[in-house]
Amino acid sequence: MIRVSVVGAKGRMGSHVVEAVNGAEDMQLAFALDAGDDLSVITPGNTDVAVEFTVPSATLDNVLALIAQGVDVVVGTTGWTDERLDQIGVALAGAPRANQAVFIAPNFAISAVLADHFAKLAAPYFESAEVVELHHPNKVDAPSGTALHTAQAIAQARRDAGLAPVPDNTQTDGGSRGQVVDGIHVHAVRLRGLNAHEEVLMGNAGEQLTIRADSFDRISFMPGVLLAVRKLAEGGHAGLTVGLDRFLDL
């Protein structure tokens, strides 16, 4: 049995993780902790993998604390920057266990991971590309980690193909053109009734490709979370891994 502790267990995502772990035949719940609880109770003696789903302002300290305690961590909280990821890498380099692992996923929905992968494959064939992400208004970060990851992947694929910058003759936009991520415009919509959605728009003269992924309920993320937990528990993934695509043989 894989012993799993959940940090952020009373949150919108964490509560679903607790339910998913309790429903998995190969897992058992060790601790379900939330804001204000003492993370030091989570140790390798009682936990094989910790799952961290909290808020961007708390996640870095939580993950660093769990690394220092020798625990492998699956992280679903978004808001990670290159600087923050570097801090995780440094912490892992000095971790108590040589094979310690941290996994961070911009998105755990299989549909979103595949959409990101398809966008990267398609990017070299189109002159223009933009990303639109749509979420519920309770989401605290914008644009989403998924959209940032998608834009970065598109930009890298375009660079590798030697493409020119995306054409855009806008003179003054007042911010309406969205955040520019590696040359790719990313737009964030916050609307009551939505859950988690992303559109990748690519265009050439006379044609357009739209890649869209929709998660209508948070249960759509649970298969990806459990997959990541199982991968870390089986070993062989020491260090920092980012993106569920790394576990899908894409």
From TrEMBL:
Entry annotation: catalytic residues: 135, 139
Residue numbers binding NAD(+): 8-13, 34, 76-78, 105-108
Domain Dihydrodipicolinate reductase N-terminal: 2-108
Any one Gene Ontology molecular-function term assigned to this protein's record: 4-hydroxy-tetrahydrodipicolinate reductase
Binding site for (S)-2,3,4,5-tetrahydrodipicolinate: 136, 145-146
Intracellular or extracellular location(s): Cytoplasm
EC number(s) recorded for this UniProt protein: 1.17.1.8
Catalytic activity: (S)-2,3,4,5-tetrahydrodipicolinate + NADP(+) + H2O = (2S,4S)-4-hydroxy-2,3,4,5-tetrahydrodipicolinate + NADPH + H(+); (S)-2,3,4,5-tetrahydrodipicolinate + NAD(+) + H2O = (2S,4S)-4-hydroxy-2,3,4,5-tetrahydrodipicolinate + NADH + H(+)
Source organism, top-level taxon: Bacteria
Pathway membership, UniProt: Amino-acid biosynthesis; L-lysine biosynthesis via DAP pathway; (S)-tetrahydrodipicolinate from L-aspartate: step 4/4
Keyword terms: Amino-acid biosynthesis, Cytoplasm, Diaminopimelate biosynthesis, Lysine biosynthesis, NAD, NADP, Oxidoreductase
InterPro entries linked to this entry: DapB_C, DapB_N, DapB_N_CS, DHDPR_bac
Protein family (similarity comment): Belongs to the DapB family.
Protein name per the record: 4-hydroxy-tetrahydrodipicolinate reductase
Source species of the chain: Bifidobacterium phasiani
Source organism phylogeny: Bacteria, Bacillati, Actinomycetota, Actinomycetes, Bifidobacteriales
